[in-house]
Amino acid sequence: MSTPNPMEGSIEGAFSSPPPPVSNQTFTIAGISTTVYGLGELSSDVQDVACLWLLHPRLQTKACMENLAAAALHHWNKREECKRIGLLAVTFDQRNHGSREITPLANEAWHGGNELHAQDMFSIYHGAATDASLLMTYLSSYIFPESHRTIATNLVLGVSLGGHAAWQCIFHDPRISAAIIVIGCPDYFSLMSDRAQRSKRSSWLDDPRPGVHFVGSRDFPPGLVKSVELHDPAGMLLGKPDQPIRGPVNKNLSAVHDARLLPQLRRLLYGKRILSLSGGADKLVPYRCGEAFIEWLKYAAAPGNWFDGSVHLENIVYNDVGHQMTPRMVVEAIRFIQESLQSRLTVPVAKSSKL
Questions:
Q1: Could you please report the per-residue DSSP string of 95-126?
Q2: φ/ψ (deg, to 5) at 314
């Protein structure tokens, strides 16, 4: 395992004492082993329940999210509001990981000998986002088969590979009201371009203008380009790297862009909450790869602009942090989860949403 676990030590240093163990049950849903934390701790009279979907890093398994699940539930269940909306945490192995691993090489990067790295990584975490939505559809029928309880809202927290997937989750599933993205990137074109350059791929170097034709090359084939434009947040909204709209948002939004993007953004993100936590010294998923898109989104979400404050976006960059979820990030994530749940109690809780 060439990449260290970015979750290692994240919980131990976050709080004065570790969270107590929390109940868990594992269900096989749609053929996926799905572990649900916190059913035993739900208040007996609570009706509305929120689910926190925890998406693990590359080369890890769902087990590494257990302590984070325990911390999130412990800190919410100490609050009086837990009697009004309960909280569960849900984990599953991402595709080709843990109990679902088929080809170990497909989880490796170019430098690990995987010539299909760009295709493999995107399809795996796109699959994780798809799996989360699938499980979301059926979960209540497994955990509440004879109960008055309903799943009122969903939150997603992803780390590294799981963070990439969490970006897709918050953009594509209307049932998800909040996302915490830890060392994840919303711009796959930018991330893989950076990785190809640093890996000295011939698709990057063997060109009179290095990198100009990387997107669309053998390392990033046209079929993958189309998939990224359909599912990746930056690819979907801003297109390929050569598109002029990828410049400063306040200078490059023509009336045509405004007419196309505004309805799309409102449909995808209206009323949602996003927390992005990044390491400024991260070399595996450099913050700069997603920075332009996040700044673009911040501009759109700012009061007086497109959303006029109806999308809540927080972006925190820890300059001294590499590719890891630090205790400081854990504290921020727990805070954001609690605030997001609290915000659901100040407005009518939607039972379902439609695009």
A1: TTSGGG-S-GGGGS-GGGT-TTHHHHHHHHHH
A2: -120, 135
Interval 24-44: pLDDT, tens: 999 999 999 999 999 999 998
Helix (H) or strand (E) holding 53: strand 48-55
> CA-CA distance, 37 to 35, in Å (whole number)?
7
Task: Show the CA angle centred on residue 220, arms to residues 282 and 198, nearest 5°.
Answer: 35
Q: Name the 3-class secondary structure at 312.
A: strand
Q: For strands 273-279 and 32-37, give the pairing.
A: unpaired
What is the spatial distance between Cα 149 and Cα 104, in angstroms, rounded to a whole number? Answer: 40
Provide the pLDDT for residue 350: 42
| The pair of three-digit structure tokens given for residue 73, joined into one six-digit string | 């539930």
| 2-6, 189-193, 317-321: the lowest-pLDDT one | 2-6
The amino acid at residue 302 is A
Q: Taking the CA of residue 315 as centre, how many other CA atoms within 13 Å lie in the half-sphere pointing to its CB?
A: 20
Lowest mean pLDDT among 7-21, 66-80, 118-132: 7-21
- C-alpha 245/C-alpha 24 separation (Å) is 46
CA 90 – CA 53 distance, rounded (Å): 5
Q: What pLDDT, on a 0 to 100 scale, did the predictor assign at position 259?
A: 64
Q: Which residue from 65, 234, 254 is spatially nearest to 164, judged by alpha carbons? A: 234
Locus of tokens 């920075």? 291
Helix (H), strand (E) at residue 1: none
DSSP state for residue 186 in the 8-state scheme: S
pLDDT, tens digit, 9 for 90 and up, residues 107-152: 999 999 999 999 999 999 999 999 999 999 999 999 999 888 999 9
Kind and range of the H or E element at 199? Answer: none
> Rounded to an integer, what distance in angstroms lies between the CA atom of residue 304 and that of residue 327?
35
Give me 322's structure tokens.
Answer: 């590499």
Q: Is the pLDDT of residue 220 over 50?
A: yes
Examine the pLDDT at 249 and tell me if it is beyond 90. no
Yes or no: say if 36 and 90 are a contact pair by the CB < 8 Å rule.
yes
Residue 330 · residue 14 · CB < 8 Å: yes
- What is the C-alpha to C-alpha distance for residues 218 and 126, in angstroms, rounded to an integer? 20
